[in-house]
Fold each of these.
Amino acid sequence: MAMYVYKDKERNEKLYANNASKEDKGIRFYCPNPKCDAHMYICSVDGFSSAHFKAKYKQYQHVANCPFHFSNGFNPNEHDEDAFNFENAVKNLMLTNNHIERKYTSNIHDTNKVNATKKPLRTIRQIYDMCKSFVCTDEYNHVTIGQMLLDNRSAYMYPKGVFGYRIIEGMAIRGRFYDSDKLEIKIAAPITDLTYKFILKFDEEALFKQARNMIFANREKIIIAAGEWKPSGRFNVFYTDVKNKKQMSVINQ
């Protein structure tokens, strides 16, 4: 499922689901993943649910681990874009459970733009789905998508490394991906070439074990992790502190 596709095989001309019309029904479009030849079709363009693109024929499905195969629940009409602050949202995800939740949320009470029926994106999966709904050079509340999510599309934006508040789309490194003595877990990204390594550092053993077991049961699946990424002192290796299970999620097909 995707919120945008390409009209041409060379992937030069984009089409967003919210710009699709009834005339586009039945037309084959191209998956945003250039390594995936899934045949994408517009769905719900005239229905009650939000319009989206889907590979609806079994013989023309996505390749393994294509991010656009996964369910995407982002609906722009349900969230307040003006009230969303990415850095504050990640800070909120990093709060320990004994802190007051929403301490770092955006200043929604300081603006008259907020629609009382809508809320800004809060969870890592909500933010991830939003980022996957747009091209990495697009913006969401004036922040470039690729500066929020490191994935295959946006990797070129990080020639010198990954620093600051980001969500990482990666996979567990091959072999032993954890260190029980140091309470660390290692993932690699982007998933196409695994150029960068990311160390998740835990203070609590219980939280470490919970994350380790989650990843162990999903070794071949995509893992997303949010944090403030800092240089480790080793080339192309970065780390963040993990204080809350909300900082991580498994992307299931």
Amino acid sequence: MDINSIMSSQLAELQQTLQMSLLDKSMNTQAGAVAQLLEAAPQAPAAQHPYKGSVVDVSV
């Protein structure tokens, strides 16, 4: 096997490993940022039930 082809395949593997590592770090950073945004978001008030607790006239 030619030394250039060996080095070329090793370089391709290194590039793929580096890309995966950067992608993993980027995803972890983004996940952390999303978690911080969710924690900092104001809490929405609980929606009231449309009829529970109200008086309903069922006389016919």
Amino acid sequence: MNDILDLPAERDLPPKAAHAMRARILGSVRPRPARTPRLRAAVAGVVLLAVASGVAAAVWQRPDRSPVQVLAMGPSELSPTLRDAAERCLQWNSPQRQTRQNPSEQPVPVSPADLAVAIERDDRTLVLFMNHAGYATCDAEAAGTDQETGGHASEPWRHGDWLPGPVQRLLLTSTEHDGGDVNVSGRVSGRVDRLVLDHGDGRSTTARLSGGAFGLMTSDARLKADNDPELVSYDARGAEIDRRLLFQAEDQLEHCYASPDGKRIYGKPTSGCLPAEKWGR
């Protein structure tokens, strides 16, 4: 079993809580069983779907917060809660903590100026830092309560500024294993002028774009994987340039994508790869 899912010693949780978190994260990469009564009863029971190179958990205590929804694109737009979340993510990504968790992993060096996307919804927060080296992201559930848990991922760019087409999804969280409401963040190429989440039922949510990053959150969307929700990209003329399934992993994309020298760098090994596109920072 990959030891990246083991909690570091300084953040040990009670065995029952640790087991529940591990099962929830593992469930994001394999079919999940029927939802439990706890998941049906609590809309805040969000599933972490991102492919993460490291996972951590912690507990804080703070008075209950009202159900506020905020989407910020950069450090200048942060609410007090998102500012706390960003600072906490930087602490989780510090070289000292990363070394104690897994000496073989090198955290991507990020700073407050690298904050690209921050999302706050009810009792959840999500922040994403990106720079030339890679990205770091943190997701917390029941934020600001004595039962707060969270996940952390930090990974260098495998192929630099080259993306699998116009858009690369980096993090996706959902309130149900097969849909519900979602928070999504990632990066886009210079061709993308507008990015929309097509719910698959006639409704849609438009993402915010800034500096080559995107972020979106839905509210009462009731998304269902069976409806095949898709991320749809448009250019400056309004023409559709890309459409891909929201819940599809990067290595299962419909097309493969090749670098300018013709080498396949994304997707399944098939012929006729589409060109990879450059990150539009």
